[in-house]
Amino acid sequence: MNAIACQVVAIEALTHVVSKVVLAPAAPVNFIAGQYLQLCLTATDKRPFSIASTPEQPLLELHIGAAAGDNWSGAALTHLQQQFAAGEPVQVEVGLGHAAWQANSDRPIVLLAGGTGFSYVHSIALAIAAAKKDIPVLLYWGVKSEDALYYQTELASWAASNRKYQVIPVVQEPSAQWQGRRGLVHEAVLQDIVSLEAYDIYMAGPFAMAGVAREAFIAQGGHREHMFADAFAYI
Ligand SMILES: Cc1cc2nc3c(=O)[nH]c(=O)nc-3n(C[C@H](O)[C@H](O)[C@H](O)COP(=O)(O)OP(=O)(O)OC[C@H]3O[C@@H](n4cnc5c(N)ncnc54)[C@H](O)[C@@H]3O)c2cc1C
């Protein structure tokens, strides 16, 4: 796959761990909502990041979680920051993965995000709304603590755009003030949906979450061929 040069337009903090990175490609890029890109640190060191934006948007948006000591994401973010400061482009390979949105399906949808897996479901959620799909779409976003949630106003207006769209944040270790759902995010899905047989399920997040969720969802009626996650290639 050919790499394309992108200017780094902005890097800003979404939380104390996650940064939003905006890239302007030197030429139009092709991808489907839910695909990822690889950031080329060198000719051989390429790191995958979900594309948070949609194909219709001219700029590429990434959400990179780089906690202290996280060398994998941290090195990618450092590279982006260095190129941004120098006004130099980065090289990316766009349009990868096998978990893209199936736009022709009219089955109800579960979007399951663990942590920065939100980037992936964000792209698909926006694409679904832009296509005016009038189907149930349940967006579950699991985080360790509630300060890891962002884009809450944007998500509220997404949910308000169709009464069949819903956002369910699930916090694993909430503060005493948290009034919403708690626990592991895939367990909230299992509690809410008695049979997953009818659903298309898209998931991104820690690989361990994808593995556990896949098995639990199959046990609750979900079909493997209607589950989409690039993490499956790694587990
Ligand atoms: C194709 C691809 C694309 C990627 N894209 C990105 C990207 O865009 N941005 C990025 O930063 N990284 C990306 N990564 C790297 C990796 O997926 C992330 O590092 C990972 O999602 C980080 O999760 P987290 O630390 O934010 O989640 P955590 O904060 O660790 O977990 C969030 C929630 O996930 C659930 N969960 C976690 N562990 C388990 C478990 N063992 N069992 C059940 N549920 C669990 C819980 O509900 C938990 O609250 C990508 C990797 C690949 C292969």
From TrEMBL:
Gene3D superfamilies the record matches: Nucleotide-binding domain of ferredoxin-NADP reductase (FNR) module, Translation factors
Top-rank taxon: Bacteria
GO MF term list: riboflavin reductase [NAD(P)H] activity
Residue ranges of domain FAD-binding FR-type in the record: 1-102
EC id: 1.5.1.41
Keyword line: Luminescence, Oxidoreductase
Family: Belongs to the Fre/LuxG FAD/NAD(P) flavoprotein oxidoreductase family.
Protein name: NAD(P)H-flavin reductase
Name of the encoding gene: fre
